[in-house]
Amino acid sequence: MNFFECKSCKTLVYLLEKGGCTPSCCGEEMKEATIHTSSEQTGSEKHVPIVHEENGKVYVKVGEIPHPMLENHFIDWIFLVTDKGTQRRNLHPNMAPEAVFQLSEDEIVIAVYAHCNLHGIWKADL
Asked: Of 49, 57, 111, 113, whose CA is between 20 and 30 Å from 38?
């Protein structure tokens, strides 16, 4: 995936198209962000997006055990990748760690990601 992270300030970037260079921030090249999955030994039960598709909609809840949505520890976005593009939902503390996405006809879900402000990016098993 095309997520890059600045090690200094923790800025995250998503590249729509990867060209011939690497993005930079704070005077240095950004590194490809680590993408966590359900194979992680700890944390996956609260971080991996759970995805359900029904009637042209994609329902996403973060975690088999709902992720905390506290001021200092929360899911700040959910990102859907399909064969036709991307969609993102921003979340904030005290909201439910979930989102609903509308698909167009014949659109196919490729990946779903969620970002925890403390534990990084997590990818759904599809």
From this structure: 57
